[in-house]
Amino acid sequence: MLSVLNFIEEKISSDEKVAWALRHINNGFTAIEKLLEGSAGKYATGDKVQLADVFLAPQIYVGVTRFQIDMSQYPTLARIYEAYAEHPAFQAAHPNRQPDAFPSSSQSC
After folding, report:
1. If both were cysteines, with which of 18, 33, 47, 89 could 41 make a disulfide (CB 3.0 to 4.6 Å apart)?
2. pLDDT higher than threshold 80 for residue 77
3. Which residues, at least 6 apart from 3, have a Cβ–Cβ distance to it below 8 Å?
4. Spatial separation of the C-alpha atoms in residues 57 and 47, rounded to whole Å
5. 50 compared with 12, residue with greater pLDDT
6. How remote is the C-alpha of 21 from its chain's centroid?
7. pLDDT band per the 50, 70, 90 thresholds, residue 44
8. pLDDT greater than 70 at residue 36
């Protein structure tokens, strides 16, 4: 998505870049929220971490930290995201804990 955002910023504007990202993130989160409403357990597809969680955690992280997505609109995703923040594997994989991470304030997953 970064290359698309850079293209939009270069060709149109920074404001449109953010608007485009918010529109598509919210569309995706709305679809995933509906999909998981009846099937999610502690994590996306049950009570054990599965591949869906490995892909979903960083998407939520970017939506929350970079684009300040209001997760109150997505209660299932918000609950799952909180569960990721408590899991040791997700804590260890947090972007701020990586050797090449830029110094920043600590965030949830």
Report:
1. 47
2. yes
3. none
4. 15
5. 50
6. 12
7. very high
8. yes
Contacts of residues 52-58 at CB distance under 8 Å and 24 or more positions apart, as own/partner, are 53/80, 53/84, 56/32, 56/80, 57/81, 57/84, 57/90, 57/93, 57/109, 58/95
- Chain centroid to CA 88: how far? 18
What is the CA angle 87-91-29, rounded to 5? 75
Is residue 79's pLDDT more than 70?
A: yes
User: What is the spatial distance between Cα 21 and Cα 50, in angstroms, rounded to a whole number?
Assistant: 26
Hey, how many other C-beta atoms are within 10 angstroms of the C-beta on 85?
Answer: 15
Q: Give the 3-state secondary structure of residue 103.
A: coil
Q: How far is CA 19 from CA 8, 31, 57, in A?
A: 10, 18, 22
DSSP class of 44: T
**Stated pTM of the model:** 0.82
Nearest of 62, 57, 104 to residue 83 by alpha carbon: 57
Rounded-to-integer distance, Cα 45 and Cα 20, Å = 29
